[in-house]
Design a protein that fits this description.
With about 130 residues, this protein is mainly beta. Helix content is about 5%, strand content about 40%.
């Protein structure tokens, strides 16, 4: 994997009034190191649809998924349920997969359902400039 280190500013950038930033350059930042803790167990997936918008995941976003993490209640996961891949919130208490959009009903995980958790979504990346 090629390392690409880019300039990283020590202070947060205000989303309101402008702030001079040239004096705050701290170091370089490699996004691979910053975003991916377990490279051998991580992969990317592309989000499709609007069911996870309530969690800030929009159609076309790039998802960074870590297979090495054990999925916990309330986490966003990639799962294969009866052979169909989906990105949802894991509800271990009610045994279902939840959308983050009120327009979608919970997906019940039945006793005979085939559920394979493919990983935990740890980051999402969104383009803000149209191609």
């Amino acid at each position: 994997m090629k390392i690409l280190s880019l300039p990283f500013f020590i202070h947060s950038v205000p989303a309101g009034f402008p702030s001079p930033a040239d004096d705050y350059l701290e170091r370089s930042l490699d996004l691979n190191t910053y975003l991916i803790k377990h490279p051998a167990a991580s992969y990317f997936a592309r989000a499709k649809g609007d069911s996870m918008e309530g969690c800030g995941i929009y159609d076309g976003d790039l998802l960074i998924v870590d297979r090495s993490l054990e999925a916990q209640h309330g986490q966003i996961i990639i799962a294969a349920l009866d052979g169909q891949l989906t990105c949802k919130l894991l509800d271990k208490k009610k045994h279902c997969l939840l959308s983050a959009n009120k327009n979608y009903a919970p997906i019940r995980i039945g006793e005979f359902s085939d559920l394979i958790i493919e990983g935990v979504v740890i980051h999402s990346v969104r383009h803000h400039v149209l191609p």
